[in-house]
Amino acid sequence: MQKVAIIGCGAYMDSGYGCPGEWRCLKAAAMGDGKFGEPSQTVAFIRCECPGRAVVPTVGMAAKLSEIKPDAVYLSSCLVNAKPGCPYTNADELAQIVEAKTGIPVIQGTHDYH
Ligand code: SF4
Asked: Most buried of 2, 9, 60, 70 (most Cβ within 10 A)?
């Protein structure tokens, strides 16, 4: 079973509407739905905070403190598909930065639930 870390958009989490961070990404990982493709163990859930500078070190710190290096990092669907988009970065750029800094492959998106 692959071990995954998920990055969600904290600004979106603060806006309510039941997600992200409450169940959708976690259910998709557990069930192997959406982009996961197989049941996956979530070993870290990282909340991005504007302007997003801390997100890469937070991924690294989560891996260090938990002593579990994820096999993949997933950017949440709300982060990837946000309209209007993130004013500070975009999913492609964030994925490239996280991948380059951590050496962990990044997948864009998590679930297709509504
Ligand atoms: S920097 Fe972008 S992705 Fe991160 S919390 Fe702010 S709006 Fe969301």
From this structure: 9
Query: What's the pTM value of the predicted model, to 2 decimals?
Result: 0.93
Q: Which atom of ligand 1 is nearest to the CA of 10?
A: 5
> Hey, which of 19, 88, 97 would you mutate to test ligand 1's pocket, going by the most ligand atoms within 8 Å of its Cβ?
88
- How remote is the CA of residue 40 from the centroid of ligand 1, in Å? 25
| DSSP tag of 45 | E
The CB of 13 under 6 Å from ligand 1? The reply is no
The pLDDT tens digits along the chain (114 residues) read 999 999 999 988 887 666 656 789 999 999 999 999 999 999 999 999 999 999 999 999 999 999 999 999 999 998 999 888 899 999 999 999 999 999 999 999 999 987
- Containing H/E element for 96? helix 91-102
CATH code for the structural domain at 2-108? 3.40.50
Which stretches does DSSP call E strand in the chain?
A: 2-9, 40-48, 72-75, 106-108
